[in-house]
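re: ur question from yesterday

yeah so i grabbed the chain u mentioned. its 333 aa long if i counted rite. heres the sequnce exactly as i have it in my notes:
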Amino acid sequence: MDASLIIKDIQAKKFAHLYFLHGEEPYFIDLITEALLQNVLEEHERDFNQTILYGKDADSLALQSDLKAYPMMAERRLVILKEAQDFKQLEALEAYTEAPSTTTIFVVCYKHKTFDARKKLLKNFARNGLVFKSDKIRDYQLADWIARYVKSVGIQINGKATMLLAEFLGADLGRITNEIEKLRIVLGANTAITEQHIEQHIGISKDYNIFELVNAVAQKKTDKAFKIVQYFEYNPKAGELVVIVPALFKYFSQLMRVHFTPNKTREGIASSISVHPFVAGELLANRQFYDPKKIAVIIALLHQYDLKAKGVGNSQMTSAALLKEMIFQILYA
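ran it thru and got these structure tokens back, copy pasting raw so excuse formatting
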């Protein structure tokens, strides 16, 4: 079930007796947990009927006692076990989950990894409550997710700004939503987020960043590419070689696939190689600059420089010197 549907049920006071929230993406687990905290109990009921425990400190017997306790001056109790991946006695709860209390809502937050679906404990949660698996957003899904999230909070964002956030914040949904919330507060409603806003309020340079370097190389804009390389030489944290090489590898791998994709419309490329339509359009526009033979040479170069960046076969050249040399060889491949 989608996290938004679970939250909708919670807001409508449709509660399960058991919730097992697990997976690699903590953001959705936190969202559902917060919805339960806000909706299960009224504020005046929480002192006596709400218990929050943490896996490292929790005791199995004390936890089970909390789960079986009766509510005081309320319809139900709420017991939340956070950081459950650190709770060594989790499977001791099997007996409780076979016949959970009808007056207790028990929530297990098992973050950063998935729990074994073959275990009886998880099967009990599924049979007598609700299990939610929180998967990581894939790289190719991230830009779409950002665009949908921005729309859901009542503002807009242009394609380039979306790609900047996706490229530099990565699939850290908590950080992305925090930064978007800052922009929403600063800019107000009915404002479209642009790359200028991101530069001003988040600190990602709209002109001198890895995204722009990849674009400059993709379009064979030699002067622009070397200006960005020079900027990185004086601001090493803005563009580290170990991050630039994978970004270029990703781009040229996608470009190679474009050359061999039969449907060369923007929509066809987006669907075939699983990229945002904005990226598909850029790839189509730039494929003229690099044929498959050149791309094969460049991918081999990137492998060499990836090793050099990690110290293999390189004992003297600085990261800045390696970057200059690599970009030169790519542009003139």
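noticed a couple things. The mean pLDDT is 91. also The longest strand covers residues 104-111.
anyway ttyl
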